[in-house]
Specification:
Elements lengths: L4 E4 L3 H12 L8 E4 L3 H11 L2 E3 L2 H6 L3 E4 L6 H7 L8 E4 L6 H7 L4 E6 L9 E7 L5 H12 L2 E5 L5 H9 L1 H18 L4 H22 L3 H8 L5 H11 L2 H20 L2
Parallel strand pairs: 1-2, 1-4, 2-3, 4-5, 5-6, 7-8
Antiparallel strand pairs: 6-7
Helix pairs in contact: 7-12, 8-9
The protein binds NADPH dihydro-nicotinamide-adenine-dinucleotide phosphate and (2S)-3,4-dihydro-2H-pyrrole-2-carboxylic acid.
């Protein structure tokens, strides 16, 4: 079976994507090769997912149909140097925060390149990925990239200049939501609930509310209004959230992540 997908960097996000691609049977394990310098990490990925692994990025690039760059932006130059000569096949997908198509193009001249920003819920097929393509990308290559990210969740195509904003919302967003769930459960424990029950209540409340907004297509403010009985418990809680700057804190978190993504791209 020939290698279809080469992944450079076998870290958190690479694992999230490959785990789901294999579970969805988008690719068989033997169709995936991961270039990763850390031996213990290679062993883990090979044993857990039965994918091929290599310490040699060039080997992974040479045999792959699609090359997914999944290293940290800080090591990109080293990685591009290790891939001197470019990938054997044309389609390169980069998930590096902040890094422009133009910068990837320097390592892969004349290649079709797609910049993507996925997120970790991809692991369970609930990911959100935004993609932007360079001019070399043919419709069938765009379709292939969409098929890869559709297998791990939802996909939206955006102009490249919006990718840093996407990173601030959906790329980094799972961390904010996880903090919210943790804090909601902590509040429950403070009010006397056993931890396991508080965690279950918090988790299902976040899941259920997201599902409610998605299915009804109501504005989040309408959902909030329906929960807040006059003189009731919810408005007492909402008033505290407003006083503590809850919404402002989230807006500023997105802005900070957006700016950090811009900074990571500056080189
Ligand atoms: N985590 C997330 O939620 C998301 C991450 N991203 C992007 O994905 C990329 C990876 O992030 P993440 O998975 O969190 O980071 P990780 O640090 O978990 O993964 C990066 C991997 O690359 C490996 N690596 C380091 N140097 C090289 C090299 N020269 N050649 C090949 N592999 C190398 C690292 O090995 P070692 O540990 O030994 O250094 C590590 O396993 C980043 O660019 C990030 O912006 C995008 C969307 C979401
Ligand atoms: O924190 C980061 O830089 C990466 C990009 C988006 C999510 N994680």
């Amino acid at each position: 079976m020939s290698i279809q997908l080469g992944i450079i960097g076998g870290g958190v996000m690479a694992e999230a994507i490959l785990a789901r691609l294999i579970a969805e049977k988008t690719y068989a394990p033997e169709e995936i090769i991961v270039g990763e310098p850390h031996g213990a990490r290679r062993d883990y990925l090979q044993k857990t997912y039965q994918v091929k692994v290599s310490p040699d990025n060039q080997e992974a690039a040479n045999v792959s149909e699609v090359l997914l760059l999944a290293v940290k932006p800080q090591v990109l130059d080293r990685v591009l140097a290790s891939l001197a000569g470019g990938a054997n096949r044309p389609l390169v997908i980069s998930i590096l925060a902040g890094v422009s198509l133009q910068r990837i193009q320097k390592g892969f001249p004349d290649h079709a390149i797609i910049r993507a920003m996925p997120n970790t819920p991809a692991t369970v097929g609930a990911g959100m990925t935004a993609i932007a393509a360079n001019k070399m990308v043919e419709p069938d290559q765009l379709a292939k990239a969409k098929a890869i990210f559709s297998a791990v969740g939802n996909v939206v195509e955006v102009p490249e200049n919006l990718m840093d904003a996407v990173t601030g919302v959906s790329g980094s967003g799972p961390a904010y939501v996880a903090l919210m769930i943790e804090a909601l459960a902590d509040g429950g424990v403070l009010a006397g609930l056993p931890r396991a029950i508080a965690q279950k209540l918090a988790l299902q409340t976040v899941l259920g509310t997201a599902q409610l907004i998605k299915d009804t297509e109501e504005h989040p403010a309408q959902i909030k209004d329906k929960v807040t009985s006059p003189g009731g418990t919810t408005i007492a809680g909402v008033a505290v959230l407003e006083k503590m700057g809850f919404r402002s804190a989230i807006i500023e978190a997105v802005r900070a992540a957006y700016r950090r993504s811009q900074e990571l791209g500056k080189k």
